[in-house]
Amino acid sequence: MTDPFKHAPQASAPETSDRNRWLALLVLCTGMLMIVLDATIVNVALPAIQTDLDFSQAGLAWVVNAYLIAFGGLLLLAGRMGDLVGGKRVFLTGLTVFTIASLLCGLATEQWMLIGARFLQGAGGALTSAVSLGMIFTMFTEPGERARALGIFSFVASGGASIGVFAGGVLTETLSWHWIFFVNIPIGIAIVIPALRVLNPSRGLGLRTGADIPGAILVTAALMLGVYTIVKAADNGWGSTRTLSLGALSIILLGLFITRQAMARTPLLPLRLFRSRVLSAANLTMFFMVAPMFGFQFFVALYLQNVLGFSEFETGAGFLPITVMIGAFSLSFAGRLAARFGAYPVIVAGLVMVVVGNLLFVRIPVGGSFVVDVLPSMIIMGAGLGVVFPNIAGLAMASARPEDSGAASGLLNTVQQVGGALGLASLASLAATHTTDLTEKGRGTGEALVGGFHLAFAISTGLAATGLLVALLALRGTSTTEPATEEQKVLVH
């Protein structure tokens, strides 16, 4: 259908020298790397945080989810603000908020302090990352350059998660878990200085156009309540009145948000975006893919430390193979394979690998081996994620109008973060419940813990398979080599 690198939206922007464009890409990617790192850098430190601040296993997921849900809940508003006041202003504001919040996280001595600071971090992360993809599509208009830029950005967005696990292991073991947050402070300051010079100060549409604050409140409340309901289901019971009531309220709030978007003069999320089959299918596929990815980071880190007895440093080093695979495939192979065979078969092949990678973890034993039981899945998962992310992002952004580039970027980021937050909350809660049940039946600690992991990875496999099914049914016919016909352009736009 459409070529994500040829027919993508091109918003008007000041001319930028070739050198400055690549420097700007470096700034945006570095900022994105810091944001993504913080979504996973805590994973290796979770056991230390749990011991130090006395978290329960289900409650521990909130250290990750407080960040993810604020991130996901505010991305749509952040993307819209980028369209209104300019991407550079939103990027710098988010970077400042994120850096200050990192300091507060490192200083936390109570559960509520850490969770609150993580929520603030997520807000800063939303502002920073929501506008990054749209700015890249504006700066790079030549198809080959755009493909390279998108491949680099996709590696940072996906591979950064695994880099975060490694960095978390090093910092936690050599210093303390507090330093996984303190390290962001000098990095944030170092990014601001070049960002002021190399990022284009685009004017945007103007605040008078409207930012739909009521819509932002509704969607943020709906997502936060949804994740809270899932996390607390481990304690309250999945079929309890409290769980069902809160879940219903979350759905009602989401319904009110959709109604608001249909009626608002300047909606936060223009519903016309979903007229594009490609954009809708790409986002839905992404939604079902990110939950297995976030679950993988969370549960494998716990498995390596709590079952195999790895130290924080060894756990971090153990995640290097998947980082290398994601980097190799997103930077070197994703664009080339799509240019030769088309986006559709490449995405399908990548999703098959994600399914297989999760399926292999369903059988992890208590007395497992890293080389035999973990490494093969990491290699397969890394290759799959490396080719899927750039092509899914390219297809989604190619389907948006120029004036909606910020909203489309915010939507794609929202789907990633919300899918990860809801997926991780569900998986962590279900795994904890199953572990408790097995313990009550007399199973040993290690066997019960691994039993919970088995259930989590079985569900992850089902979610990844659902994403594969969506791609098979709805993305068939997409191509990165053939230009779109006029009829296809009408369908997409």
TrEMBL record:
It comes from the Bacteria. The keyword S-adenosyl-L-methionine does not apply. Pfam families: MFS_1. This is MFS transporter. It is a multi-pass membrane protein. The keyword Cell membrane applies. PROSITE patterns: MFS. CDD domains: MFS_MMR_MDR_like. Residues 24-479 form the Major facilitator superfamily (MFS) profile domain. InterPro entries: EmrB-like, MFS, MFS_dom, MFS_trans_sf. Keywords: Cell membrane, Membrane, Transmembrane, Transmembrane helix, Transport. It is found in: Cell membrane. The chain crosses the membrane at residues 22-46, 58-78, 90-109, 115-137, 149-171, 177-199, 211-231, 243-263, 284-304, 316-334, 341-362, 374-398, 410-432, 452-475. The lineage of its organism: Bacteria, Bacillati, Actinomycetota, Actinomycetes, Streptosporangiales.
